[in-house]
Specification:
Blueprint (H helix, E strand, L loop, with lengths): L1 H8 L4 E7 L14 H14 L3 E5 L12 H18 L3 E5 L3 H10 L3 E4 L8 H8 L3 E4 L17 H18 L7 E4 L8 H9 L1 H5 L6 E2 L6 H6 L7 H13 L4 E4 L2 H15 L1
Helix pairs in contact: 2-3, 3-4, 4-5, 10-11
Bound molecules: ligand 7PJ.
Ligand 7PJ binds next to strand 5.
């Protein structure tokens, strides 16, 4: 995993392929609910160019209901174990629960991706102990209500100072600086206008001392902007990746691995 982070710091791009193992996840309708299908999809994404697979067993989309610890463990742990039987691809676990972080890492995952920025009790010391990279994402409110009325005075300023504070708290808890990744959290308690300002100001996040991860893939901001259904948001999602790349972002969480890699190969070739 340190090799991937080193690549990102040195200016090379890395694609994280999304593997939802939730029956209710919004964009693949739970089709990867079953173990074999999930593992197969992860291996396909790896072949397509994803260097890390992000596994999530708790849907965090707006309006989603929380899942129990037992249910979440049951969804993610077998998938991680089975991917490990077939591949050395890096795996991140998309969770906010410390118990799931621990079990996922024990099963073979390499990184924690927390939309809650390790706010759960004991999440920070546990990640410090595990000594693995962590992605701290910003969100305003809870998934159930976060799109009700998000409010910011200066969205990029507020989110970057939040992430800076979380990173400092992580380091105080013993997490190494080299293990911290930050993410502004597109769509998590943000209006379309907020998301667009963030996309315009990704350079500000890139000036911070941590690698920046961006996740815009198929998000509802594109429905708001374009009126497109989830299956028709590929062009906008990939274009947003290019806009972020041009401001210095090098780490991308996406559903559409082939298309994103094509766009990034072009970006890199032009930047030479
Ligand atoms: C993100 C995430 C994101 C990070 C989700 C979805 C909702 N983790 N998990 N960043 N989004 N780090 O994929 O639309 O933007 S779940």
């Amino acid at each position: 995993m340190q090799e991937l982070l080193k690549k990102i710091r040195e200016g090379q791009w890395v694609v994280m392929g999304i593997l939802n193992v939730t029956p209710d996840s919004f964009s693949d309708g739970g089709q990867f609910d079953h173990l074999d299908a999930a593992v197969k999809h992860a291996l396909i994404m790896q072949k397509e160019g994803a260097e890390i697979i992000d596994i999530g067993g708790e849907s965090t989309r707006p309006g989603a209901e929380p899942v129990s610890l037992e249910e979440e463990l049951q969804r993610v742990v077998p998938v991680i174990k089975k991917i490990r039987e077939h591949s050395k691809v890096m795996i991140s676990i998309d969770t906010s629960k410390p118990e799931v972080m621990q079990a996922a890492i024990a099963a073979g995952a390499n990184m924690v991706n927390d939309v809650n920025a390790l706010r759960a009790d004991s999440a920070m010391p546990i990640c410090a102990e595990l000594n693995i990279p962590v992605c701290l994402m910003h969100k305003q409110g809870l998934p159930q209500t976060m799109q009700d009325k998000p409010e910011y005075i200066d969205v990029a300023e507020e989110i970057s100072s939040y992430l800076q504070t979380r990173a400092e708290l992580c380091m105080e808890a013993g997490i190494k600086k080299k293990n911290i990744v930050i993410d502004p959290g597109f769509g998590f308690g943000k209006t379309l206008e907020n998301n667009l300002s963030l996309l315009k100001q990704m350079n500000m996040f890139c000036q911070m001392e941590y690698p920046v991860l961006v996740g815009v893939s198929r998000k509802s901001m594109f429905e708001q902007l374009l009126g497109r259904n989830v299956e028709d948001r590929l062009v906008a999602s990939t274009s947003a990746v290019v806009l972020a790349y041009q401001q210095g972002v090098r780490f991308f969480r996406v559903h559409d691995v082939v298309e994103t890699c094509d766009a990034l190969i072009l970006c890199e070739a032009v930047a030479q």
